[in-house]
Please model this.
Amino acid sequence: MFKIGDFSRLTFVTVKTLRYYDEIGLLKPVKVDQFTSYRYYSADQLSRLSYIIALKDLGLSLDEVAILIKDNLSPAQMRELFILKKAELQQRVAEDQTRLDRLEKLLKRMEKEGTMPDYQITVKKIEPVLVASVRDVMPTYGDCGPLFGEVYKYIAKKGVFKPAGPPFMLMHDAEYKERDVDIEIAVPIGKAIKRSDRVKIYELPRTEQAATTIHKGPYSTINGAYNAIMAWCEANGYQPVSPCREIYFTDPKEVAKDPSKNITEVQFPVKKA
Model:
């Protein structure tokens, strides 16, 4: 038998790892001295530890390894687990390749422009959210203020004094318009309340993929964020889908004297072109 230190040197596995494998029942020593608490391992356990290391090297978690080294696991069951792990690794490789492609495009853009782009594009999932909203056709996007007031006044009347998140605007027009814009002002709420003829209460569904970026500064210059997302979509083979959202993280009243402190996130649902 081997003391844990000798077994560690023989297998190139740290003592700390061997102790952890013992704790979780993955590889228990054949003997533990009742007086010194020394752990002892046998030569027969070398093959088992080698199998554990090989499985870990394939990317399996310790929980998956524990399942595979069970003596009562059939070859068919083992094959099924390996097939699932293969699919998981293939998905990970595909995601990494997508990230690599985006990085290469960013580097080319930096080389061309000589500086870091003003807007960084992130693709993310947008979770469902319960909102109170008002949708209307307004003369311009800048005329949305009264709609915000209408929603906030209504939810306060219904006992919702603190929104569940920052307010946002959804733009429903399929293309950019300078006049008569179809917009919806939405305020996240933490509980369902009764709707009215004007204020709609509903859950916005999940968006699986959205190209997003942060705009810092006055709303008058936010077109730069939209241009950046459009350029990113074209370069990466995506197609923007309406409605897009503008999330307002700063209170206009608080930054009225210094619009440069405005922080707005632009979110554009996208799909592969």
Summary: The longest helix spans residues 75-113. The CA atoms of residues 72 and 78 lie 10 Å apart. Residues 122-272 form a domain with the Multidrug-efflux Transporter 1 Regulator Bmrr; Chain A fold (CATH 3.20.80.10).
